[in-house]
Write a structure and sequence with these properties.
The protein has 190 residues and is mostly helical. The protein has two domains: 109 residues, Glutaredoxin (3-Layer(aba) Sandwich); 51 residues, no CATH class. 55% of the residues lie in helices and 5% in strands. It is built from seven helices and two strands. A two-stranded antiparallel ribbon has the order 1-2. Strand 1 and strand 2 form a beta hairpin. It is globular, with a radius of gyration of 19 Å. It starts with a helix and ends in an 18-residue tail after the last helix.
Length: 190
């Protein structure tokens, strides 16, 4: 849904196209054709924002070092982002290059070569979830929400109150198909 919205609002817009073509090398990746690249970009976006989704916008240096990422941006915000990044690149490129290096270094440290994950105490993991928990509507963050089955499974054991609130609200909300019975991947309501 949001890919089509951003395509219509931004990517087909003459003003956005002019700014992109003037200041950036824009590359559109078809995630169906190149799931390997999509996977990398999604991990980058999740590291920046704590979540992921499509469309994914990654801004990076010529050396493929990311310094900014996000998902759907309304046209007005996307133009502001393009303007700020374009100006920063023109006037103080070193800051963006340094950010890209630092972020790449952090992301590469997260890569675990032997395939084992560092153990995190359950209390610490639950605390992270509690900080982002939407107490009114359940889930984490604001709309659109992309519920994770893995997170909910963990919370059923570690913090059942959050899992149950989220699942009840999902059942009551637009993410649940009340006719065909099942859950969508995301919903635009909270």
């Amino acid at each position: 849904h949001w890919c089509h919205v951003m395509e219509r609002e931004s990517f087909e817009d003459a003003q956005v196209a002019e700014m992109l073509n003037k200041r950036f090398v824009a590359v559109k990746v078809d995630r169906e054709e190149r799931p390997d690249i999509d996977n990398i970009y999604m991990r980058v976006c999740q590291a920046f924002t704590g979540g992921g989704g499509w469309p994914t916008s990654i801004f990076m240096t010529c050396e493929q070092k990311p310094f900014f990422a996000g998902t759907y941006f309304p046209k007005r915000h996307f133009l502001q982002i393009l303007d700020v990044i374009g100006e920063k690149w023109a006037r103080d490129r070193q800051v963006l290059l340094q950010s890209g290096e630092e972020i790449s270094r952090v992301l590469s440290k997260k890569e675990d070569l032997d395939g084992t994950a560092e153990a995190v105490p359950w209390d610490a993991a639950v605390a992270v979830f509690r900080r982002g928990f939407d107490r009114e509507y359940g889930g984490f963050g604001s709309a659109p929400k992309f519920p994770s089955a893995h997170n909910l499974m963990f919370l059923l054991y570690a913090a059942p109150d959050m899992a149950e609130k989220t699942l009840r609200q999902m059942y009551r909300g637009g993410i649940f198909d009340h006719i065909g019975f099942g859950f969508s991947r995301y919903s635009t309501d909270r």
